[in-house]
Write a structure and sequence with these properties.
Blueprint (H helix, E strand, L loop, with lengths): L8 E4 L4 E3 L18 H11 L17 H4 L5 E4 L1
Length: 79
């Protein structure tokens, strides 16, 4: 059986860009202060793997992700 290795998570859009630090092989721990982007990172990762992320649903009224929801020409890239 193969192994899935993700080295970096990127989001590109016309209004908002995000790029994670390079992830190492093995277990990576994501930590930081409130509002530093931990949830956004995990949502991009889940979305990039084909998951459905409820905060990114345009029917939700979440101001926290307004930049992403209103962005255009956007995509998530997993390296």
């Amino acid at each position: 059986m193969g192994v899935l290795i993700i080295k970096r998570v990127k989001y590109h859009g016309d209004k908002y860009l995000y790029e994670s630090p390079e992830l190492r092989k093995g277990l990576n721990v994501v930590y930081g202060d409130n509002g530093s982007g931990k949830s956004t990172f995990s949502y991009f990762l889940e979305y990039g793997l084909g998951g459905r992320v409820s905060p990114f649903n345009k029917d939700q009224d979440i101001d926290k992700y307004r930049l992403i929801l209103e962005d255009t020409n956007n995509f998530v890239e997993l390296q």
